[in-house]
Amino acid sequence: MNTLAASEEANASLPHLIEKLLQQQGLSYQLRPSRHAGPAAQQVQASLLCDSLGTVLALFPKDHLLDLKNISVLLGRELEPVRAVQLQRILAKHQLNQLPGLPVLFSSPCVFEQSLLEHPTLWLDSGLQGWSLEIDQQAARTLVAKASAARFSIRLDSLPSLPADPAQDSQDLTRAVTNFTALRMRQRLEETIEIPPMPITAQKVMKLRVQPEASIDDLADVVETDPSLAAQVVSWASSPFYAAPGKIRSVEDAIGRVLGFDLVINLAVGLSLGKTFSLPKDAPEGNTNYREQAIYTAAVIEGLAKAMPRAKRPELGLNYLAGLLHNFGYLVLAFIFPPYFKTICRHQEANPHVSVELIDQHLLGVSRDQIGSWLMRFWDMPTEVATAIRYQHDGDYQGPDSVYANLVFLALALLRQEGIGGGPVVDIPDALLKRLELTDEDARQVIHKVLDARDALKVLVSSYQHD
C-alpha cells in the first residue's frame, strides 16, 4: 500500500451505525478507497427495490446488470427501484450518503447473485461515499447467511456490442419495433413508425449550410421566420457565457458580433430539432435534465475543440451541434417505445453502474445511440453528427470522423466525473487524448472553465427550455 493510501485509510472512519452492525456480526473487514477495489466481478452492487408489500435488497456483481423482470418472476412480486427521494430519506436516517451492500442494515428480505460467493474477496459499498469494505469469503458468507442465493442478473459481457456497420442500425431498429409491436409482417421502419419530418426551419438552415455564398442576412432571414428560435439565438448571444459588450438588439447582431455564422447555423438546427419531440414525462431519477446536459456537453466540446492544435481542429459549429444532439436518441426512444421507456428508466435507476446503451441493448436489442444516429442519417444531417452520436460511448473508436465521436466521449466523461449526466464514471483512455492532441491538463482546464460559468450557462438552459 502506498503512503497516500495508508494516510487516507488512517483518517477514514465508517459511519457509527455501520461499524456497530459489523461488530455485532463479528465480521472482519478493511476500509479501502473505492478506486482501489478489485475486479468488477468482485465488487458488490446494491439495489433497494420495492412494491406494495415493502422493500427487497438485491446484491449482485458490478459486471452484471440487474434484470427487474427476472427478479420479479423469481420472487413473485412486481419490484421497482425505491425512488430517489425515498432512498435519500432512508439513508439520511442512518447518516449515510450511499446505499451500502449490507443486509443487516435492513429489515427487508435480501437476495444475492450466487456467483458472488465464488470469489475469495469481495468489495462492498460502505455507506461512505468513495469508500468500500474489503471482506473475505468467510465474512461474505456470514453477511448473507439469512439471505437467499439465486441467479437473476445478466453478465454485461454477454450483451451484444455495437455493430461495426451503421447500415445495420436500421435492421436492428426495425427488429426491435417488430418485436415491440408484435407485427407478423416485417416492414421498413419508416412505414411502421411515423417519424416526424425534420422541422421546416431546420431544413431551410441546412440548405444554407451548403451554399457557399450564403450571408449573415440570409441566415438571419431564416431564423427570424421562427420567432421562438430568433428569441433563443438573441438570448444565447446575450448570455453572460459569451460576455458580449453592449446590448444584442437583433438576430443579425447576435450572428455578426457574437456567435458567428457557423455556430448560429448549427445552433439553429440543434434548437429546431430539439423541439421535434417532447421531453418524456418519466425520466431516470438522478440523471441530469436532458436540455441541461445538452448545453453543458456542447459548451465542453466547444472548449475542447478550441484547446486542440489549430490544424487538428474539426469544424467547430458541427462539434457544437454534436454536443447539443448527442442524446437525441433518448427523445426518439421515448417516442417510439413509450411503454418500454418506463422499463428502461427503472433499469437505469436499479443499475447506476451500467452504461445506458447496454441497458437499451438488453431490453430492446438496439441502443438510443443507434436510434439517434439512424434518424440523423434519415434526415440527411451531416455524417459527422451521425457518427458522433453513434460512437459517443466508444472511447476506442478510430473510424471515419472519429474526432467528433471522441470529443463527445471526452466531454461526457469529464462531465460525469463532476456529477453531471447519468450512468457510471468512466476512465478516459490516454490513447484518445493523444489522438485529439490534448493533455489531461488541457481537458481539466476546459471542464473547470465550463463549471466556473455555471450561472451563465443556466441562462442558456432557461432559454432552451422555454421555447
Automatic annotation (TrEMBL):
<dbReference type="InterPro" id="IPR052340">
    <property type="entry name" value="RNase_Y/CdgJ"/>
</dbReference>
<dbReference type="Pfam" id="PF04073">
    <property type="entry name" value="tRNA_edit"/>
</dbReference>
<dbReference type="InterPro" id="IPR036754">
    <property type="entry name" value="YbaK/aa-tRNA-synt-asso_dom_sf"/>
</dbReference>
<keyword id="KW-0472">Membrane</keyword>
<dbReference type="GO" id="GO:0002161">
    <property type="term" value="F:aminoacyl-tRNA deacylase activity"/>
</dbReference>
<protein>
    <submittedName>
        <fullName>HDOD domain-containing protein</fullName>
    </submittedName>
</protein>
<dbReference type="InterPro" id="IPR014627">
    <property type="entry name" value="UCP036888_HDGYP-like"/>
</dbReference>
<feature type="transmembrane region" description="Helical">
    <location>
        <begin position="318"/>
        <end position="341"/>
    </location>
</feature>
<keyword id="KW-1133">Transmembrane helix</keyword>
<dbReference type="InterPro" id="IPR013976">
    <property type="entry name" value="HDOD"/>
</dbReference>
<keyword id="KW-0812">Transmembrane</keyword>
<dbReference type="Pfam" id="PF08668">
    <property type="entry name" value="HDOD"/>
</dbReference>
<dbReference type="InterPro" id="IPR007214">
    <property type="entry name" value="YbaK/aa-tRNA-synth-assoc-dom"/>
</dbReference>
<feature type="domain" description="HDOD">
    <location>
        <begin position="195"/>
        <end position="395"/>
    </location>
</feature>
